[in-house]
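Technical annex B. To support the medicinal chemistry partners, we prepared a structural model of the target in complex with WTA, based solely on the information shown next.
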Amino acid sequence: MKSSELRSFEDYQKAYELSVKEPEIFWEEQAMKLKWIKKWDKTLQWNFDEPHIKWFEGGKFNITENCLDRHLEKRGNKIALIWEPNDPKERFLRLTYKELYDKVCQMANVLKRNGISKGDVVCIYMPMIPELAISVLACARIGAIHSVVFAGFSASALAGRIQDAKAKLILTSDGLNRGAKQIPTKRIVDEALEHCPSVQKVIVVDRLGWAVDMIEGRDVYLHNELPMVDKHCPPEPMDAEDTLFILYTSGSTGKPKGVVHTIGGYAVFVDYTFRNVFQMDESDIYWCTADIGWVTGHSYIVYGPLLAGATTTMFEGIPTYPDPGRFWQVIDKYGITHFYTAPTAIRSLMAAGEDHVLSYSLDSLKVIGSVGEPINEEAWHWYNIHVGKEKCPIVDTWWQTETAGIMISSLAGVTPTKPTYAAYPLPGVQPVLLDGEGNELHGNNVEGYLCIKYPWPGILRTTYGDHDRCRQTYFSNYKGYYFTGDGAKRDENGLYRIIGRVDDVINVSGHRFGTAEIENAININKKVVESAVVGYPHDIKGQGIYAFVILWNENDENESPERVRSEINETITAEIGKIAKPDKIQIVRGLPKTRSGKIMRRILRKIAENDLSNLGDISTLLDPTVVEEIIEGRI
Ligand code: WTA
């Protein structure tokens, strides 16, 4: 029996119509499917000017009561979470809903024992181990705000996020496995904490059995704490508009910002979208390969599947370890029915050759999904033919950290799909395309800036500690609209295709970076005068990072370009993390600038793309000759 309410294209059309005509009635109906401690007084209040958005105000709610307690009677012995380790030879873990419930309650009591209460911010910097999901839920259980930081970020990036959120406690592990490598997570935390006075406690999970430095009075091991606490922990009654979590994401300017999501609306939106996009049966097994450090993991590894009472899978490793058949092996091992991954993973496994995927049956698969970046035609077909065996609908789901959940996607087997198209908006989501002046483009066969004109329950409420930044970034470009930063096209049938970012955000393997963020990191290197970073098309990663760098002493004979490049890479690794390392670093004498000193990124982007046909008029530049030099020296 499926848990979705939309089972046919007609159901979808009816729901969509109602959701536009009577959005409040539509979302009230969805909200009623969850358990409220007290029903809300006011369904929606909003304006996009401040912005001020409140859903289900006055309602009392706990999201873990809905993810766990609510299922115990019917699904207590159903598997809630499967955990597959990095090393296929290590033992996997399966937790039933009852077992997960117990573990979350215990972890919640460990947090309380270590001084955490409602409203405190807890930073979680952990690999993909069960304790990560359990920690997230434990925070929500007691009303603490979680801020998960992807464990690939550097000490400096971690410190910035801890400071911004003023986190009181960090949950981490001794180290982590990543393919054949092991990374000293706790040491990175220690380094970060040299600059984070707000942190009072560190709870360490013993993942690798390493002897790590423990600071007395600050650091404790989870395994020493667990025996000290009770198994029982009631869910804290929270206001619908209390903050559930902060998640840092990059934008086109400045430092990464903490996107804030609140409890009630987030739960309703993620529950509704999960059930209707994936269309799972009760006995199905779902696997999303994202990391819980990103929004996809929050919404569609932890909260969405558990709200729906589904079985969700967590994978500690990487797609290519011990070989590029790893994903397919895991699918066969557990009989995965619903598989959700990123185009970059598909492309890298496609490049590894068909033999790997053809060695596994993949018979269990029913639905396959894609998220994080536009999926190109070739990868779409490969996924459809070799993974889905042309019998599994592909859901290409477009959404963002800021939207909390899926906004545009086909509903598996219910609404039409088209290669490279995310297709139709979900009920309750009202996308529009705008021209450069902010006019709505009506009708079909149009292309423009993708905006949303009405609030949905999962919309971000603010950016942590800086509400004006939220207004400026998302609500000021086009008055009265939420601006996504993406460009999109609507085809003759009204299906949407997302073209990609139209701002200074680069999407590398589904990870977002601001060009300014990478430039700031490069400029920290003392040899660098100035830099400019642009994205360019990359076969595997979707976009690669191309950095143009001016040095103080370009003619220094002791400086080989290789050495400078590797030093710049080291700086970026230290400032942000390895994931932000440029694919190409070109050392240049100057950058193309206007007479007012503005860098002409359009020209650099063309050069990086190797498209020299139409550079535009360069005669008005401060120094047009630098363009020739850059072209000659391009990598
Ligand atoms: C891009 C990830 C095309 C887009 C959930 C968006 C996509 C950014 C798709 C958000 C898709 C995500 N097709 N592009 N199906 N999904 N994007 O915040 O540019 O990490 O703005 O959220 O990824 O990335 P974020």
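Notes passed to the chemistry partners:
The mean pLDDT is 96.
The longest helix spans residues 97-113.
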